[in-house]
Amino acid sequence: MSSNRHPATLHRSLPELPSLPRPLYGRVESLTNRALTFRHTHPWVQLSYAIAGVLEVQTAGARFVAPPQRAVWVPAGVEHQVFSSPRTEMRSLYIDGSAVPWGPAECRVLAVSPLLRELIRGFSALPAEYDEQGAPGRLAAVLLDELRAAPEVALMLPLPQDARLREVCQGLEDATLRQLGLAEWGERLGVSEKTLSRLFLRETGLSFRVWRQRQRLLDALSPLEQGERVTDVALACGYDSLSAFIAAFRRQFGATPGEFFRE
């Protein structure tokens, strides 16, 4: 799910918060089919989590995709955009940096355990100015402890900065160009295949083949979560057969599509 797939998205309003009412602040949103189409920053950490639907956070350097039971950690001051699949039920946590001195300095996709999920659900129902010395404050403390223990998962796609590679990446979202290899892209851009291959590895840490496969699999998560047939998703992502798609999906995520969304 990339920005190229949202040609008619709507702006989603952000809360006017000069400061957080508490070190941990929760928001609940139901997004019919929306995306935050402008880049913005927060002076606090944001945890973007969807109990239904798929969220994507884009920064200048990467895409971070979070289907259910995953969440995206966005550090304070990091410029980002948020996109969502249709009918997304979003729970956002805004966290004062002093409450999470252990927090990573870069965006991450984190696994959300059943306990952490229920803690987020319960905390999101509290009033903004909850009693920090009472049960709500203890709930917030446990939530932060569980968040600290949440492991990172590989649902990130690094984005190159070179203008030629950006053109290649954008072209790979087009069904008519998806099957082009680096040799064909080199002809289009007037640069050698070897140069493009070297640039891809230098700027993303991945070979072109591995980068393209990860892009396809991340793009598959939203339609799969919405219940589309696995065969249809596989073909739409450029795979010639269902078995090839499932094998690639298992290698990337450690589970078949069915197992992945039953977790």
UniProtKB/TrEMBL annotation:
Record's Pfam families? AraC_binding, HTH_18
Single GO MF descriptor? DNA-binding transcription factor activity
Keyword terms of this UniProt record = Activator, DNA-binding, Repressor, Transcription, Transcription regulation
Tell me one GO biological process term.
positive regulation of metabolic process
What SUPFAM superfamilies does the record tag this protein with? Homeodomain-like, RmlC-like cupins
Instruction: Show where the HTH araC/xylS-type domain sits.
Output: 166-263
SMART domains the UniProt entry points to: HTH_ARAC (SM00342)
Q: Which residues cross the membrane?
A: none
Q: Which domain of life does this protein belong to? A: Bacteria
- Name the PANTHER family for this protein: HTH-TYPE TRANSCRIPTIONAL REGULATOR NIMR, TRANSCRIPTIONAL REGULATOR-RELATED
Name used for this protein in its record: Helix-turn-helix transcriptional regulator
Origin species: Ectopseudomonas toyotomiensis
